[in-house]
Request: fold
Amino acid sequence: MIDKAREIALRVLYKIENEEAYSNIALDDILNKNRNDLNEKDIGLISEIVYGVTTWRLTLDEIIQKYSKIPKKKISIWILNILRMSIYQIIFLDKIPKSAAVNEGVNLAKRYGHKTSAGFANAILRKVNKKDYEELFQIQDVKEKISKTTSMPIWIINNLEKDGLSIDKIEEICKFSNERPKLSIRVNKLRTSSKKLKEKLESKGVEVENGILEDFYILNKVKNIEQIKEFKQGLFTVQDEAAGLVPIILNPKSHQKILDACSAPGGKSTYIGEIVENDGEIEAWDIYEHRTKLVEKSAKRLGITIINTKVEDATKFKNKYVKQFDKILLDVPCLGLGVLKRKPDIKWQKKEIDIKNIVHTQYKILENCCKYLKDGGEIVYSTCSILKEENQNLIEKFLKENKDFSIQKISIPNNTKSGINFFEKYLIDKKFIQVYQNEKTDGFFICKLEKSGKK
Reply:
């Protein structure tokens, strides 16, 4: 008999690899369709396998290749993912007996493969043990060892090295990329106070820790966060604190007209609305209407009425917007290498060749939107990425070609609950914030530009 949870996990993994679906979207979609047939334990196992296999794919494939006489490219995607699932359980999940991982894998191979598939899977899985992973740490080439022990594509490691990072720092980034992200929330002070929200959550048995920033908490022991009453009432939003720092650096004022040119799903637009106490004018753009609807849905839940969404392509210049905005937020499309612990599929869907195209798009957006800024106005440029080509190098090029802009010194607001400015260590020459993924936040880049009006 096939275990339903593992079969659902297999189907999600197939969608991620064969259809290049986003792991979080594919997982949420299939869980919602099958929620009535699953208990909390099933949902937990499905999520663990999907994120675990997607995160550790390169390492798992290395172990498969050690024992398989058939080249990986000739193994069907179904059987390959069954092997990955089973090996992940054997190597990384101590609470699951090896016999259970092997037997369930063989059962799935019988259903999703040919007559010989079950025997092939059984032969490999019975040989696998935890020493197969430990042996990878004996690899002599340092970059190859980091790649195979942290499941990080070598092109990412090479680019981080090119950016001047030490091998130790690169290894640290790779390790943190595999950790499960903390559940960070932003208090909506339009509707409650930090103290009141904390009391309400703790009364439900949720563990609440102080965040880095004043409006943020870290939650533990909570499931289905978007289903709890306080979320539906708009008392908080789920947001990483590095992402939350971006609107704080923008420092919007209530009387200003503000543009968020790449706004979906709306986390930063709505935080701007909260900072200005729902007083002012915010335009939130996205290239697709269904994504602007996400911004609208979030704003409505939070009680923010000053956000006006528009379907606009920020890569295409429109004269009607010239000098219309006091402040502009450009959280541009990027490779997303700073959010790998949330979206591990990025490692396999993005390639080194994509860097040139994404940088071209980023620069086009900045080049267009800078013209929409009033004289004396400010732009905050940000990405959830960690490569200099997308960040610091792009800004330096822009400043050389646009003499009416200057980079502004960034001062981290001293509003941390711990009294320690966590983000200070990521501030470069007081001009750039380059956060690398760490124990508390995702990776993020932030800088602030001012328009003088003089060329």
About this structure: The first strand starts at residue 183 and ends at 187.
